Amino acid sequence: PPVILFVDGSSLTGNEYVKLSRQLSPFPESEIVRWDWSGTNIRKESQGIDKETDSIQHRVIQELKNRNYDVIFDDDDSGEAADVVTIRIKSDVIEVAFYHCKYSSEDKPGTRIKDLYEVCGQAQKSIHWMEHQTELFDHMLRREPRKRSGDESSRFEVGDKRKLVEVK
Fold it and tell me: What is the distance, to the nearest Å, from the Cα of residue 17 to the centroid of all Cα atoms in its chain?
């Protein structure tokens, strides 16, 4: 049956109504980290095979390179898990994070619900990659390198195929 989510956080599945035991607080605005997007064309999402430096994806990757990931992978294209996939190896766990990029539908920054819905939809679609432990890594290995019209470039921004096989 469909699940109906209500604004107060409660839900209805078939005839089962679930009310939250406590009211959730809004996400604190002080926790939102704002990036400087100057030099970035907010209407250009993908860095592409040429790794265009004025794209949103390139800007995101540059920020992620400062965060000590073992692998940063440009998965952007049809069938992607996410625009950017990161992997961090810890002593007892492997952390995987998906980053979805969305170009602006207008020239000036703004709070457009359409843009938000699109990127949230991408995030919901990609969660299936975490159902089987190695499926994501196999997917990434199959997609390396990126190819277009006889040209190719590595999708690895940090790490390489050998590192990904080790993680798998």
Answer: 32
